[in-house]
């Protein structure tokens, strides 16, 4: 099975930390949506597997689209692919876009999962990040979505924000749990040079948390959410039993996916490609960058994404696809990490303990083949 991703790059305001492909030039929305429909039609043959399991609208801010515009993309996908077995259709939303009317309109579409960018339940932290909503607004949005029948809601939170750990993070975690969200994505703040935070950091106007505090806050998130019954199944993702993100999981398990829109990426098992055009460039014609994955690339990518998940690496799978000798070499390189507790091995699987996910990158590169 495969996945579809629609990237809606528009935002009313750019958050201080955001380095995703986005634009505040909302006047281009109609032209970009028109081009996205053309791209979907033209590039549908990129996938070798034409049975779609999940559809995801990300951004940017997909909730700037009307419910009808979202449904039009879903209907178009049904014309081009076998969508009879679709399990999950997700739309990312901003809390302040969720009016009672918009919630009801979304509920009348094929969408069955909502991913809401909350980021914090501390109003001071929200203002610092440049968010458009308040903590109370996020809670109200959740209530409206529940009222119209959404039973699968994910929320995003951010930790590792200098000055907003401690009680602020505690408050956010407590409210996130009390919200009843089926899924919580908890991301450590990363400050990229081209963002507003990056420019502030270079001027010395803000600081970053140090490595020790990062690990402490990560552990606080892990402990609070797992104690509340969430499964920590990937570095940044926690889910109630049976509520993992099927779409995001497809990225971590080598599933094919077609991305449509400026900023979207695609993968068909052999070729990875991406569109990095601005919205102005995109409406004039779509161009891609691409790379073909070698067998070695595929192996190292499997190691990388697998060690970010609680299931870890399956040595038998490596042996079947890349050979017994490769599997033995990977196990040999893993031994010293198993001995010191950075990895665990059970039943032919090697995994990073969930409480150590934050430092998994220190292990992953050492397990790569050919490096």
The largest sheet is: 9 strands, mixed
Spatial arrangement of strands, main beta sheet? 7-8-6-5-4-3-2-1-9
Beginning-to-end CA distance, first to last residue: 32 Å
Average residue-wise pLDDT:
95
The overall strand count is 15
Task: Estimate the helix proportion, in percent.
Answer: 40-55%
Tell me, briefly, the overall form.
globular
Structural class: alpha/beta
- Helix count from the secondary structure assignment: 14
Low-confidence stretches: none
Q: Topology as H/E string?
A: EHEHEHEHHEHEHHEEHEEEHEHEHHEEH
Whole-number radius of gyration? 21 Å
Question: How much of the polypeptide forms β-strand, as a percent range?
Answer: 15-25%
């Amino acid at each position: 099975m495969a996945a579809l991703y629609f990237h809606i790059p528009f935002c009313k305001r750019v958050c201080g930390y955001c380095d995703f492909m986005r634009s505040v030039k909302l006047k281009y929305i109609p032209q970009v949506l028109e081009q996205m429909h053309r791209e979907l039609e033209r590039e549908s043959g990129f996938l070798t597997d034409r049975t779609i399991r999940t559809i995801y609208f990300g951004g940017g801010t997909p909730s700037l689209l009307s419910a009808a515009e979202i449904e039009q993309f879903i209907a178009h996908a049904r014309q081009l692919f076998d969508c009879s077995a679709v399990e999950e259709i997700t739309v990312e939303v901003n809390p302040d876009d969720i009016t009672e009317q918009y919630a009801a309109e979304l509920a009348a579409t094929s969408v069955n999962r909502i991913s809401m960018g909350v980021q914090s339940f501390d109003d001071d932290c929200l203002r610092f990040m440049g968010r458009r909503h308040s903590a109370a607004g996020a809670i109200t949005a959740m209530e409206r979505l529940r009222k119209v029948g959404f039973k699968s809601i994910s929320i995003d939170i951010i930790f590792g924000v200098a000055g907003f750990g401690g009680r602020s993070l505690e408050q956010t975690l407590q409210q996130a749990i009390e919200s009843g969200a089926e899924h919580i994505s908890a991301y450590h703040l990363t400050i990229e040079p081209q963002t507003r935070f990056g420019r502030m950091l270079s001027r010395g106007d803000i600081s970053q948390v140090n490595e020790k505090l990062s690990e402490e806050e990560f552990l606080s998130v892990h402990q609070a959410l797992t104690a509340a019954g969430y499964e920590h199944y990937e570095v940044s993702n926690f889910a109630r039993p049976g509520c993992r993100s099927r779409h995001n999981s497809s990225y971590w398990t080598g599933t094919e996916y077609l991305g449509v829109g400026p900023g979207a990426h695609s993968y068909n098992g052999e070729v990875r490609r991406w569109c990095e055009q601005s919205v102005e460039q995109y409406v004039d014609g779509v161009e891609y960058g691409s790379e073909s994955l070698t067998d070695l690339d595929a192996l190292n990518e499997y190691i990388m994404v697998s060690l970010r998940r609680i299931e870890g690496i399956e040595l038998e799978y490596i042996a079947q696809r890349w050979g017994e000798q490769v599997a033995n070499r990977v196990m040999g390189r893993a031994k010293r990490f198993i001995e010191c507790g950075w990895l665990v091995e059970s039943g032919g699987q090697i995994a990073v303990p969930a409480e150590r996910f934050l430092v998994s990158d220190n292990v992953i590169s050492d397990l790569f083949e050919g490096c």
